[in-house]
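> call design_seq(struct)
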């Protein structure tokens, strides 16, 4: 498209199709890079914040687009590592399947795998006990010789978005604290951790 105005002034008022905002709110990703697996255990604080926000936005799009109930994607999915890892993998698969350089049948493969993932998500949600209006930590089996687990109590979900933001801020701060502790104990001359 050239930068020169058109002869017909009405054509200058035609919206640019690349700027069309009728795509149900699923905007460009926060990070402009090729899709790659996310190892949530190894993310630094800044990367974790971006990945949390990107995944949350995609999960919200997914649940609305496919009309998924809380038995598949509950509001507090982010507090359950089993749901986080499953949804993160599904997101990566979706990004790759819908990459413009992918073969035309890739989206069909994603939908087939999405059907399998929905079954696994139902199983994870049922095992965790998280619901639409309350959450609780996933119960852990205590092996012989381990300390008994603390009692598990349900926590009401009052404002899901605010609770998500608080969760992410706490996660990012914990990662930042770990990074600062690591660098504080790092000998700048030898590169060894004391």
């Amino acid at each position: 498209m050239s930068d020169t105005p058109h002869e017909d002034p009405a054509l200058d008022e035609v919206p640019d199709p690349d700027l069309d905002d009728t795509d149900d709110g699923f905007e460009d990703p926060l990070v402009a890079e090729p899709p790659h697996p996310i190892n949530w255990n190894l993310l630094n604080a800044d990367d974790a914040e971006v990945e949390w926000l990107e995944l949350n936005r995609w999960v919200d799009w997914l649940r609305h687009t496919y009309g998924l109930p809380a038995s598949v994607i509950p509001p507090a999915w982010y507090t359950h590592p089993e749901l986080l890892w499953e949804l993160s993998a599904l997101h990566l698969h979706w990004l790759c399947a819908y990459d413009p350089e992918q073969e035309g049948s890739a989206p069909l493969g994603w939908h087939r795998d999405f059907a399998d993932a929905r079954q696994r998500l139902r199983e994870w949600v049922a095992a965790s006990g998280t619901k639409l209006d309350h959450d609780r930590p996933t119960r852990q089996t205590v092996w012989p010789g381990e300390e008994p687990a603390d009692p598990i109590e349900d926590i009401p979900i009052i404002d899901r978005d605010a609770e998500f933001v608080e969760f992410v801020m706490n996660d990012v701060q914990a990662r930042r604290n770990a990074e600062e502790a690591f660098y504080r104990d790092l000998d700048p001359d030898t590169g060894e951790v004391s």
